[in-house]
Design brief:
Number of strands: 12
Largest sheet: 10 strands, antiparallel
Strand content: 15-25%
Number of helices: 6
Distance between the termini: 50 Å
Number of domains: 2
């Protein structure tokens, strides 16, 4: 019975350890992804450093770095909690098995003493020769040997497992200490980034000596963006309605449904629409990163990139529309069955309406002027699988 309980308990602990390791691995993968994003952000910061008049763009990149650093620290804290949990579980397991081991050793000592006394008083011989026949004698001999061997093997087994768990605890303690040191380093880096943010805000204030004109400029930009988003939404809604009423052949309908399905199956796996891009404004309703007094409803994301960077299709599809939007440059809409992706702020366009495009195919180049604050791609995804198009968060679809 004890053997069964010990094996069950050991399996339970082992499965708990495996779960903890998997969770830690996921957190470590997330940290590596965030560090890659920070690397891209720093590269963009270095490239815009020479153009100090575009400090607002730099400020957004720094804010992005700060957000990533905070998430890394949060992931590290989660790892520490998981490792502490593993340490506690393993420690409890060792204590229980050590108690069981002590009991077994005590029992085994009693058996040895009893055996010694039996030898002195011929109790064993009496037990054996009390057998009624040879078969019973054989069974009694086998019983004594098996019982003794079982006790010895059990003691060795628990002793071995205890040593292994103790080794694991030592390793986990070292890992926990290492993570604590890493968190401390991250906090130091975060402090440095906070100092940079204050510097950028100070420079930004000096550049914006006429705040009224600056706010008017932001308001005009937001108006243009809202008008552009509304226009894009109307076009996609119109195209979705047209698509629903279009008569297709059986083969065309099958291809349309298959393309929709493939796009849907690649949620979280789509490539970035611009190489080295960094999300500096997220999807949804939030405060404008440049002006906390302004609330915006972003129907996509803004990706900072290098000037003249290539913009690429995130999935195969058909170029549905190409238009020039006031203040936002060229815009391309690609249809992927019942899904639509939009790429705004292109200086040049390398495709035309009706073209079939493949994943990662170049669509054009992002703005390449001297104003680094405009080297930004606005990217959105609309889901029309249920009829009325709905804009969805692109960060849930793009591979991080």
């Amino acid at each position: 019975m004890k053997r069964t309980l010990t094996l069950f308990f050991f399996c339970l602990i082992s499965s708990g350890i495996a779960w903890g390791q998997n969770s830690v691995q996921e957190l470590q993968n997330r940290i590596r992804s965030l560090e890659d994003e920070i690397k891209n952000t720093n590269a963009l910061l270095q490239r815009t450093e020479a153009d100090r008049k575009n400090n607002r763009s730099q400020l957004q990149l720094v804010l992005k770095n700060i957000g990533n650093r905070k998430e890394i620290i949060s992931s590290l804290d989660s790892q520490i909690r998981l490792i502490n949990r593993e340490v506690n579980v393993k420690t409890e397991a060792i204590e229980r098995m050590q108690a069981e081991l002590k009991e077994l050793k005590s029992d085994y000592t009693a058996i040895v003493r009893a055996a010694y006394k039996s030898q002195q008083t011929n109790t064993v011989l009496t037990f054996l020769f009390a057998s009624e026949d040879f078969n019973e004698l054989t069974q009694r001999i086998f019983y004594i040997k098996r019982y003794t061997a079982m006790r010895e093997k059990k003691a060795e087994q628990i002793d071995s497992v205890s040593r292994l768990l103790q080794t694991d605890i030592t390793l986990l303690a070292a890992k926990r200490d290492s993570l604590s040191a890493t968190v401390q380093n991250r906090n130091q880096e975060l402090s440095k980034l906070a100092d940079e943010e204050r510097d950028y805000r100070r420079i930004d204030t000096s550049l914006s000596s006429q705040s009224r004109q600056y706010n008017q400029k932001i308001a005009e930009q937001q108006r243009q963006i809202k008008n552009a988003q509304d226009q894009i939404q109307r076009i996609i809604a119109e195209e979705a309605r047209r698509s629903q009423t279009t008569q297709r052949s059986a083969a065309e309908e099958e291809a349309f449904v298959a393309l929709t399905g493939r796009f849907d199956q690649n949620k979280g796996k789509l490539p970035y629409p611009v190489s080295g891009g960094v999300v500096i404004e997220k999807f949804g309703t939030h405060k404008d990163p440049k002006n906390p007094n302004v609330t915006v409803n972003q129907k996509g994301v803004k990706l900072a990139a290098e000037r003249g960077a290539h913009v690429r299709a995130v999935f195969e599809g058909v170029v549905n529309n190409i238009m020039l939007l006031p203040g936002l440059g060229n815009t391309i809409i690609i249809e992927h069955g019942s899904y639509y992706t939009t790429y705004t702020n292109l200086e040049t366009v390398a495709v035309k309406k009706g073209d079939k495009v493949s994943t990662n195919q170049m669509l054009g180049k992002i703005y390449s002027g001297d104003d680094a604050a405009s080297h930004i791609l606005q990217f959105s995804i609309a889901d029309a699988t249920k009829g009325t198009p709905v804009f969805v968060n692109p960060e849930l679809w793009i591979k991080r």
